[in-house]
Amino acid sequence: MEASIIIPVNFLKKQTMHASQLAELGSWIALHAGNFIYGENHQPSLAATNYWTASKVRLQRWVAALKMFEQDFANCDPGHDPWPAFEIVVQEILLSELLTRVWSATVITHDWYHQQDEMHGVAHSVHVAHIEAKNRAIRILLHARPQNEAVFDRLNRLRRRVERWTDMFLGQLPNGEKASVFGFDRSRVLDFNREQDDALESEIVMRQRVIAASFSVDVVRDQTPYAANPDLNRELAAGILDFFTADRFDSNSMPKSTRMIWMEKAQIDTQLLLDELVDFENEAEQPRFSLK
Fold first, then answer.
1. Which of 48, 55, 233, 289 could form a disulfide with 126 if both were Cys (CB 3.0 to 4.6 A apart)?
2. Exposed, middle or buried by CB within 10 Å (0-12, 13-18, 19+), for 245?
3. Which domain, by its residues, includes 161?
C-alpha cells in the first residue's frame, strides 16, 4: 500500500536532522510496514547495533539536559532563561516518540510473523527508555508551568497531537493487536486498524495519501527551527533505513506495495512446494532393492 510520501532516504542527504523529520520517517514506516514485515526474515545485526547505539547516546544527552533544567528551574536566576533550550529538548522527545513507538511495533510484528526474537530486546529497551525520558520531561514541565504558561501550552498541544497521530499510524500496521500495545489509546489503534479491514485496496491507498499529506503539514506546526541532537537523529534514522534492504523497493527506488510483497512471497512459497513435490516424485521413481 503506497502513499504519496517521499522516500526518507532523501533525508539522509542532510548532515543534520530535526525531530519532525524523524516523525515523518515514522509515518513512512507505518504506511509501508508490510515491506519490512513480510520481507526477508533475517535482519542485519549492524543495523540493530547502530540504531541502539544512537538511541542510547541520545537518551544520555536527554537525561543530562533534563537534570540541568531541573536545577535551573529550582534556582531561578533572573539573568538566565532556560525555557528556549528546554522547549527544544522536550519538543525533540515528544516528536521522535512517534518513530520509536511505530518502529518498535513494526519490528515486534516482524519477529512475531517470522517466529523469531531478533529485535524484541532492542526495541523494548529503546521504547521503555524513551517513555522514561518523556515522563521526566513532563514532570519538569508541570512543575515549572507557572513560570511560562505559553511554552507549557505549546508543548502540551504538541504532546496531544503526537499521541493522536501515533495511534493513527499504528493503526495502519498489518497486525492491530501487536501494534496497539505501543499505542497511547489501545482501542483507538484497533479502531483505525479495523477501518482497513473493511476498505478496498484503492480506498486504503487514497486514505493513506491523505493521512501522509495532512501529517506532513501538521508535524511542522509550532515547532522550533532548532534540533537538540541533529547528528544523532540522523544516525538513528540511518540505522532504521539499513533494515530496508534492496528487495523491499522497486526499480525506481520506491517502496513496493504490501500486495506486491505478498505476491512475491506466494510465488516463492509455491516454487518451494513444487520443488519439494518434484524431489518426492524423483525419490518415488528410484528403483528400490531389497536383500532376501
1. 55
2. middle
3. 8-285
